[in-house]
Specification:
By secondary structure, the protein is of the alpha/beta class. It folds into two domains: 165 residues, 3-Layer(aba) Sandwich (Rossmann fold); 177 residues, Dihydrodipicolinate Reductase, domain 2 (2-Layer Sandwich), CATH 3.30.360. Helix content is 29%, strand content 21%. The protein has 13 helices and 14 strands. It has a six-stranded parallel β-sheet with strand order 3-2-1-4-5-6, with helices on both faces. Strands 10-7-11-14-13-12 form a six-stranded mixed β-sheet. The two termini are 23 Å apart. The structure holds NADP nicotinamide-adenine-dinucleotide phosphate (NAP). NADP nicotinamide-adenine-dinucleotide phosphate binds next to helix 1 and helix 4.
């Protein structure tokens, strides 16, 4: 039986979209909880099912959120889960029936995603936060406002794999803020090289295994395995162009240093960009401020008013003050300046909202509003 939550009306000021049943896979994790938060009062989507590992399956969602040893509630988001969601039974993600929802939002580690996502994608759309399929030539890495024309690859996926549904992953959460800010620069001035150093929030490491408090308190961890390679490679793909049945990567050279900082949430990145043209700051500012207007003006439930917000105060952006900008969907930019090396700025991006769950929900909303979901 499918349990549905929320009213069965589906409208918003300017858009009417058929209401859909959705399932969250990996619902007990950090990104999964952000999916619950983004979806539990959604005007178009209603949570019909939740799933996680066999450790959680068979219990109610509320019980599964409790630590098996201490019994402590491991709910992580600022917004509370609704009683109706807490009462939902947690299903085994490996065995969940594709018929149990119209759309699947998946937030599991890559190894599990490799097994779970194709089984569901054979029948249903799957929006994923995992890296498992990002490297496949027929899989777009979707970023709202940046490259949704890449969703044209969905037809290629269906044709090649015989799927009725599809897998659309989002990028690594550290790539997200970077590509949102690079896209307007690439379009207006051309990109040559990018040097980025991140100070990433703890939630980016998830719960299992997560980052031990004793290691990170009063500390900065100077290495995150695999992260720098992902940022460099994904940036080229996301900023690239559809070319036949695949994506031709943008030739930009990206050098990343990724560190873990003692911040609960929000990824801060210092960025230096060598552009193809010489620019003045006013033109850079204009390009960034205007960016994303079309997406943001569509009346999509999870879209912010602006994709990029620019701060003049040299002490901004800060993760604590700016991660929730635009409901966690706006990338905050500050310290915008030119020096002998290139254009320089600092950004803050919400890693579990725009960088994971709510960003994936926004991609689904754009497809629903376009009538292609
Ligand atoms: N955290 C972020 O900021 C962020 C941002 C972007 C992308 N991502 C990606 O999102 C995914 C989830 O990350 P997270 O931070 O939410 O991790 P997490 O907090 O560790 O949560 C992992 C989730 O996956 C479930 N799970 C683990 N093994 C499973 C299995 N074999 N089969 C089915 N479900 C399984 C867990 O269920 P149990 O509770 O039952 O163990 C839990 O619900 C990862 O691929 C990560 O790279 C995370």
């Amino acid at each position: 039986m499918v349990t549905t939550i929320g009213p069965h009306m589906s409208s918003n000021a300017s858009l009417r979209v058929p209401r859909r049943r959705v399932a969250v896979i990996g619902a007990t994790g950090v990104a999964g909880q952000q999916f619950i938060t983004a979806l539990q009062n959604h005007p178009w989507f209603e949570i019909a099912a939740v799933a996680a590992s066999t450790r959680s399956a068979g219990r109610s969602y509320g019980e599964a959120l409790r630590d098996s040893g201490s019994g402590a509630m491991r709910w992580y988001c600022d917004e509370a889960p609704s009683p109706a969601v807490l009462a939902l039974p947690v299903e085994n993600a490996a065995a969940i029936d594709p018929e149990s929802a119209d759309i699947f939002f998946a937030a599991v580690e890559s190894d599990a995603a490799r097994e779970i996502e194709p089984r569901l994608a054979a029948h249903r759309p799957v929006f994923s936060t995992a890296s498992a399929f990002r490297g496949e030539t027929d899989v777009p890495i979707a970023v709202p406002g940046v490259n949704l024309d890449h969703l044209a690859l969905i037809d290629v996926q269906r044709r090649r794999r015989g799927w009725k549904g599809f897998v659309v992953p989002l990028p690594n959460c550290t790539t997200m803020g970077l590509v949102v800010t690079l896209r307007p620069l690439a379009d207006a001035f051309g990109l040559r090289r990018v040097i980025m150093t991140s100070m990433q929030g703890l939630s980016g490491a998830g719960r299992s295994p997560g980052v031990a408090a004793l290691d990170v308190l009063d500390n900065i961890i100077p290495f995150i395995a695999g992260e720098e390679e992902k940022v460099a490679w994904e940036t080229g793909k996301i900023l690239g162009q559809v070319a036949g049945d695949t994506i031709a990567h943008h030739p930009v050279v990206v050098s990343a240093t990724c560190t873990r900082a003692n911040v609960r949430e929000g990824h801060t990145e210092t960025v230096t960009v060598e552009l193809e043209q010489s620019v003045d700051l006013a033109a850079v500012r204009d390009a960034m401020v205007a960016f994303g207007g079309e997406l943001c003006g569509r009346g999509l439930p999870s879209a912010p008013e602006h994709l990029i917000e620019i701060h003049d105060d040299p002490y901004r952006p800060q993760p604590r003050l700016d991660r929730e900008a635009g409901g966690g969907m706006t990338t905050s930019v500050g310290r915008l300046r030119l020096d002998a090396v290139g254009l320089r700025y600092v950004l803050v991006s919400h890693n579990t909202k725009m960088g994971a769950a709510k960003g994936a929900v926004l991609v689904a909303e754009t497809m629903a509003a376009d009538g292609v979901l």
